[in-house]
Amino acid sequence: MANIDLRDGGGGSGEVQRAHPLGRFRPVWTVLHDATGGVFRHDGVMVASAIAFSVIFALFPFAIFLVALAAMFGGADLAAYISQEALAVLPENVVKAIEPELNRIFAVANSASPLTFGLLVTLVSITGAVEAIRDGLNRAYGCAEDRHLVRRYLSSLAFVFGGMAFLLFTGALGIVVPIVIEILDRYIPGEFELGWIETGREVLLVLVTLATLFAFHLFLPAKRRHVASVVGGVLFTLVGWWLSGKIFGLYVGTIANYSATYAGLAGIVILMFFLYIQALIFLYGAELNRSIADLRGARENPLQ
């Protein structure tokens, strides 16, 4: 039975007010509905395609440069670890689909020098991917980009080099930590288990992903945002990426047969489709942040 509130208005006429069917969940519905509409209003479907293309265009040059850089500063061990962990965020079935190409790429990267003409190609492709992500965030947050082109690309380069340094540092940790645990186990037997390494690896991967997402939302848009204003979208993106990775891996492994349609290009098509889904989730997370901020603004200024 619907909740009806009868209030006696002026003149004795009865004013009937019906409670909203969603009740206390109305703000949640408002945010989700507005964020979904925002994806289409701001051309999120098109921008997600541009991000997916830009990322896949930059992915392999970035992998070559990163592994070559690791070999130059950290030797063969760091290069091998980076090669192994570079695509750990991808579902297993996606990695298997592009494994032949990856093996050839990493074989070249281990013996390549990063200080070559390929560095220019790498930087152009990676900054293009960063700019595509920046454009998607500006659209979602309703920001008008007024920064000079040179300034934007310099910030993209800083973003790229900072990301590379961070990945090399975490890669070095991935080598050092197991060695430290092995040494400690010699002096304190039974206190340290190998399972800790795998758990630590997964925790490190989550922390790296979170740091990357926060950096995207805080530093790329034209209008700077506070950490509290992007937490919701970042957490949604993190959980959405994890769930979509599991579902997409199951889909590729048991249902889809891309080889029958795309033959030798199946691996690249699978990777691009996966990146497209991830880009949509990322942009939806940005729309969630905007919608939550709009709702808070409406509550603080109800008459505006």
How would you explain this protein's 3D organization?
The chain has 304 residues and is mainly α. It has one domain (45-299). It is 76% helix and 3% strand. A two-stranded antiparallel ribbon has the order 1-2. Strand 1 (4-8) and strand 2 form a beta hairpin. Helix 2 crosses helix 5 and helix 5 (117-141) packs across helix 6 (149-187). The chain starts with a strand and ends with a helix. Residues 1-16 have low confidence and may be disordered.
Properties at a glance:
single chain; 304 residues; globular; mainly alpha; two-stranded antiparallel sheet
Arithmetic mean pLDDT: 75
Total strand segments: 2
Name the poorly predicted regions.
1-16
* Rg for CA atoms: 24 Å
State which percent range the strand residues make up.
under 5%
Summed up, the domain count is 1
Order of SSEs, N→C?
Answer: EEHHHHHHHHHH
Proportion of residues in helical segments:
over 70%
Number of helices: 10
User: Which strand order do you get reading across the main beta sheet?
Assistant: 1-2
Layout of helices and strands, plus pairs?
Blueprint: E1 4-8, E2 14-18, H1 26-41, H2 44-85, H3 92-97, H4 99-111, H5 117-141, H6 149-187, H7 195-219, H8 231-254, H9 258-262, H10 266-300
Antiparallel strand pairs: 1-2
Helix pairs in contact: 1-10, 2-4, 2-5, 2-6, 2-10, 5-6, 5-10, 6-7, 7-8, 8-10
